[in-house]
Amino acid sequence: MKNPLVRQALTLWVPLVLTYVIVLLLVQAGVVDAYMQVTIATICINIVLAVSLNLITGFTGQFSLGHAGFMAIGAYATALVTMRFDSIVGFIGGLLLGGIIAALVGFLIGLPTLRLRGDYIAIATLGMAEIIRILLQNFEFTNGAAGLSPVPQYMDWTWFFVLTVGSVMLIRNFVRSRQGRDAIAVREDEIAAESIGVNTTRSKVLAFTIGAFFGGVAGGMYASYFYVIKPEQFGFLKSIDILVIVVLGGLGSLSGSVIAAFLLAIISTLLQPFPGVRMILYALLLIVIMIFRPQGLLGNRELSLRLLPGLRKRRRDDAGTEAA
Amino acid sequence: MEQLAQQLVNGLALGSIYALIALGYTMVYGIIQLINFAHGDVYMVGAYVGYFCMVHLNLGFVESLVIAMAVCTVLGVVIERVAYKPLRKSTRIAVLITAIGVSLLLEYTMMFFVGADTRTYGVLPPFMEQSFNVGGVLITMKQIIIIGVSVLLMVVLQYIVRRTKVGKAMRAVSQDADAARLMGISVDNTISFTFALGSALAGAAGVLVGVYYNAINPLMGVLPGLKAFIAAVFGGIGLIPGALLGGYFIGAAETLVSGYWSSLYTDAVVFGILILVLIFKPTGLLGSNVREKV
């Protein structure tokens, strides 16, 4: 287990490929019914949304209440492009275009507002998302409140898998990079970070832009799977939904967001017969977590297969090899 | 000209309601630096209490108003004690998320009990349905009541904050909570009292809106809550005169946009105003810049 490549293969690639193949086989064998497929799709989309919001709110400490706005941009871009160019190229192009426009909007709105203090940013992002929704509701080319349909469906399990795993890994790599460290420093103490030479505005805008990009991609995934998109689907409540996942998993824990996305999918499946109770439970969950475990399920730690005994990094060995 | 005057009268009535709600936001923010997202839902509860009193108990307007304010006062204090007080030492994000949780809890609990559909206050007493024509401008009795009640409540509030002992304590705590504690002021009680005052005003606003628009539903507090918050930010959050100024400004802006342009864009314009204010003068119109110290 000394070879880091072997360890990475065992803890990352083998489980991932296994997951992919097993679910693929189950889908093809018909074991996974239509309802479960929708659940899997929702989980994947929620993971991308939560991980990208976690980058903004959890790692950089900028409280955003407007993630549904970025999602809406991505969804509409993907829908409009694929409805015109109904091909796989159109789909990839739409997905990218959605991400890029969302990132651009994130950049434009982030540049001036991120100078503000925490709770003002929350309100500014909320305002931005509401403006986006109202504009989509009134524009001609987005077909107003009726929304767009039918959006050609290109998302299948392979695409979901590739996009979800890809997004999580890209954001993970960003968080571990120099820029990511800067972002975490900004979260811990903005003034201290500034005093040791971190360009705090740049860090915040960068995190915001990247988070917005993946929010847009998630919107594209949504549009291309669920046929119909309407402005009302991307309201304030959607932003709250995403926030609940991030907070439940832990602000600053990517694996926490992934686990929370699964947990909440299970909870909402169980609560399917009682739609009225679902939101009450969500609300109580938020309050109770904040009072008794404000750091969320995982805090800012990460859970990975490396923590399993036998796969654990043996510090003494590593230190020994390095010394030699 | 007449149309402008008409829109301004409508704006004054709407602005009074925003100002009443904004006062609660701004007082709470001034004292514990929390955006109380649940405030808009306290206003919604006030509207339902008023509905219950007027339609089911057949009480008059004034009695219903007083009962709604009393119920909201209790609700505000309970929310503060149960949800916010345990978090006094937590990060601001944690408290803000709790506030969102409380807001959702109020909305969906109400929806669970009364259903999601819109209800009407029914037939109002005849004196409230009168209207007057002043030089081509139509002024309804409801508008006069709204403006009158709001101004009365604002005067009372001003008296409490400026002239009474507990008002003095409120101002002291909002300036420096630790110093206030050293002077023997019970900070926790003062915070509760602030919530009580703000919630009472929100409850009154709820009944007034119920009478004015004659339609209430469990999610009615979300947008007015946000707009009242925007009004508070516009005037300078934490400042009572700022909330009044902001409330009337947002009310006027909204009626003018829907009168001269399109009612579809009023919300977008209000949020646009917010973003402009935040970019150019984040401390609000009446606020002064405070530099952050290490």
Describe this protein's structure:
Chain A: The chain crosses the membrane at residues 12-32, 38-56, 63-82, 88-111, 118-137, 157-175, 205-228, 240-267, 279-298. Chain A: Its main location: membrane. Chain A: It is found in: Cell membrane. Chain A: Keywords: Cell membrane, Membrane, Transmembrane, Transmembrane helix. Chain A: This is Branched-chain amino acid ABC transporter permease. The complex is a heterodimer of chains A (324) and B (294). Chain A is mainly alpha-helical. Chain A folds into 2 domains: 1-32; 37-236, no CATH class. Chain A contains 13 helices and no strands. Chain A has helices spanning 4-29, 34-59, 67-84, 88-113, 118-138, 157-176, 178-188, 190-195, 200-226, 236-249, 254-270, 275-292, 315-323. In chain A, α2 packs parallel to α6 (157-176) and α3 (67-84) packs across α9 (200-226). The longest helix of chain A has 27 residues, at 200-226. Chain A is globular. A two-stranded antiparallel sheet of chain B has the order 1-2. Chain B has helices at residues 2-32, 39-56, 61-84, 92-114, 141-163, 165-175, 177-182, 187-213, 222-235, 240-260, 266-280; strands at residues 131-134, 137-140. Chain B starts with a helix and ends in a 14-residue tail after the last helix. The longest helix of chain B is centred in the N-terminal third of the chain and has 31 residues, at 2-32. Chain B has a single domain, classed as ABC transporter involved in vitamin B12 uptake, BtuC. Chain B has 294 residues and is mainly α. In chain B, α5 (141-163) packs across α6. Chain B contains 11 helices and 2 strands, in the order ααααββααααααα. In chain B, β1 (131-134) and β2 form a beta hairpin.
